[in-house]
Amino acid sequence: MQKILVSACLLGCPVRYDGQSKPTHHDHLQRLHARGWLVPFCPEQAGGLPTPRPAAEIQEDGRIMTQCGKDVTTPFVHGAELALETCQKERIHYAILKQSSPSCGSNTIYDGHFKQRKIPGEGMTCKMLRQHGIAVYSEENLDELFATLESHP
Ligand code: SF4
Q: What is the average pLDDT across 28-35?
């Protein structure tokens, strides 16, 4: 059976920094969920950060900082490593990660100045998964993933 790692917040789990979730009701995601293919995972929680937690953004030098200037790079890296470990253990080749998060973003991230400005970039977990050959999608391109899965069942 195919398995896909998915950001837990996209499935409605209240794991985001603000204690909320970001459920997506996209048909394709519901379909994959109904097939039992989805493996929910939150890298920031897995990495040891509490919920709720201060918002954090990736800085120009690659570190991940909260708005108060606390360096939280280490738990973000740890969460990314655990996400990779889960993929390797479960033979997962695809992931659906929440766009723009400093862990899960796959095309965009926030610019590091806490001004709600997005720039092109990848979150820590997305980057690590891609470096190890896992194809990362987001809630914004589920059609593309679904087409890929249908052509390579
Ligand atoms: S780290 Fe990823 S899964 Fe966890 S709340 Fe943020 S976007 Fe969602």
A: 93
Atom of ligand 1 nearest to the CA of 22: 8
pLDDT band of 25, cuts 50, 70, 90: confident
pTM exceeds 0.70, yes or no: yes
Measuring CA to CA, how many Å separate 140 from each of 73, 129, 145?
26, 18, 10
Total domain count, the chain:
1
**How many CB atoms within 10 Å of residue 135?**
15
Does 7 contact ligand 1 (Cβ within 6 A)? Answer: yes
Structural domain range at position 28: 4-151
Residue 20 confidence (pLDDT) above 80: yes
6, 10, 13, 16, best to mutate for ligand 1 pocket (most atoms within 8 Å of CB): 16
Show the tokens assigned to 77. 């890296």
Summarize the confidence of residues 73-79 as an average pLDDT: 98
Read off the amino acid at residue 58: I
Q: Maximum distance among all alpha carbons in the chain?
A: 47
Over residues 126-142, the mean pLDDT reads 98
Distance from residue 57's CA to the centre of ligand 1 (Å): 13
Is residue 25 within 8 A of residue 33, CB to CB? The reply is: no
